[in-house]
Amino acid sequence: MEIEPFAPLEPGTYFIDPDGDPATALRVVYQIPAEGWSMWIGAAKFANQGTACSASGCPGNPSHVGVSITTVTNLVSDGCRDHSWADPPVGPSVDDLAEALADLAPFQVTAPTRDVTIDGYSGKHLEWTVPDLPVDGTGNDLRFTGCVEGNLKSWVGFIDTAEPGDAFYGYTGPGYREEFWIVDVEGTRLMIAAEGSPGSPAEDLAELRAIVDSVRIEP
């Protein structure tokens, strides 16, 4: 987080504090495998985009891939029509978050929840896709017509605490995929999300997978 948003990241090893609390020891280490990735903060905390965005695109660009590494405190009530935070909020367990993500409208689950292990920590995995919602504009000007402020939103990371309604909104259009790994790290719920727009180059997707595969959790 000491790196400026959108600043380029040289290939190498990086780490992120996924809960933003200097009093806790948890951090996640990961590898940037190639040139063209940059640090990015949107509505969440990204690990190499943090999430990272590739040379072929950042949020709002027709081609975008990224990795988000954060803790998640809540979801919006509805991704399109109601960006207020869910009340009551999502429960504290891995299962609570996985179930809430799977039920969040209007996202379409494309890989159902299953057990998974990341670096020795057990949790859940699922994947969803942005449905064929009506949109207007292109690139950075693309808007989801019919959605609040033209945005599609979802999960609330630890940096999304300024006011209710802050949440991740890096979705670039219909067909955007987001893959989640949610694990319990000695009582802290950690979420890693791999994101990509349809038509992303195979090279970018391979680098995205390499970043996810390189994750090491240091509690």
Global shape: globular
Q: Identify low-pLDDT runs.
A: 41-61
Q: Reading side by side through the largest sheet, how are the strands ordered?
A: 6-15-14-10-9
Q: How do the SSEs run, as a string of H and E?
A: EEEEEEEEHEEEEEEEHE
Number of helices: 2
* Biggest beta-sheet profile: 5 strands, antiparallel
In what range is the share of β-strand residues? 35-45%
- Helix proportion range: 10-25%
Strand element count: 16
Mean pLDDT: 84
Tally the structural domains. 1
What report would you give on this structure?
With 219 residues, this protein is mostly beta strands. The chain has one domain (8-218). Helices cover 10% and strands 38% of the residues. It is built from two helices and 16 strands. The strands form five sheets. Strands 6-15-14-10-9 form a five-stranded antiparallel β-sheet. A three-stranded antiparallel β-sheet has the order 1-4-5, with no helix packed on it. Strands 2-3-16 form a three-stranded antiparallel β-sheet. β11 (135-136) and β12 (143-144) form a beta hairpin. The longest helix has 12 residues, at 202-213. It starts with 7 loop residues before the first strand and ends with a strand. The model is unreliable at 41-61 (pLDDT under 50).
Keywords:
single chain, 219 residues, 38% strand, 2 helices
Care to give the gist of this entry?
The protein is mostly beta strands. It has helices spanning 94-103, 202-213, and strands at residues 8-9, 12-16, 27-32, 37-39, 52-53, 65-70, 72-78, 82-85, 108-118, 121-129, 135-136, 143-144, 155-157, 177-185, 188-196, 216-218.
